[in-house]
Amino acid sequence: MNPPSSPGVPAARPLLTWAVFGVTAATTAAGLLVPGFAPVLVRTDDFFHGEGWRLITPILVNPEGWHQVVFNGVMLLLVGVIAERTFGRARWAALYLAGGLAGNAFSYVMSDYGAGSSVAVAGLAGGLAAWVLSGRAGLPVPPRIAAGALLAGGAALAALGDNHGAPLLVGALLGTVFLRTMRDVPSMSDVRPTRRARTP
């Protein structure tokens, strides 16, 4: 049975995932259609000259074309629904923002000037990897090995300068902290998207 959907506990309905998907779709569309909109949000060296919002706003737009739009949108829905049902809305938001901040900060260190929501989604994926590895998801050994491989891949990506590695690792660390403080951690059978959501 799914726990109640209050901000601090696992959510029956993944409303935050869909809300973030909608906002990101809207801001991405504006970035693709409205001249001058995306350049205000993406990573540029103006971050080092007082435009501090560029540490987080790059996750609001996917300016590299429809392949980025579709991939990041699909991944947000696939990963976000499970993460929201597992960690709840407040922790989901923390994982998403931590991933975005870590990915963008790493990008600035590597002089990677662009944008995209995938780094924030990587934060969610890292949190889920920690959940699977902990055994609390109730999954057999192969998925746990895959989760470990994902985090090992995150370390490799970071070492290679890819901006998705850092948010994966930060998400896993934060997810581990959350799992230690959560009173009730649902299993995969409780949070799978096909399960009919229960209300409080």
UniProtKB/TrEMBL annotation:
The keyword Transmembrane applies. GO terms for molecular function: serine-type endopeptidase activity. Pfam families: Rhomboid. It is a multi-pass membrane protein. Its main location: membrane. Residues 50-178 form the Peptidase S54 rhomboid domain. InterPro entries: Peptidase_S54_rhomboid_dom, Rhomboid-like_sf, Rhomboid_protease_S54. One of its GO terms (cellular component) is membrane. The keyword Hydrolase applies. SUPFAM superfamilies: Rhomboid-like (SSF144091). GO terms for biological process: proteolysis. The chain crosses the membrane at residues 15-38, 90-109, 115-134. It is found in: Membrane. Keywords: Hydrolase, Membrane, Protease, Transmembrane, Transmembrane helix. Belongs to the peptidase S54 family. This is Rhomboid family intramembrane serine protease.
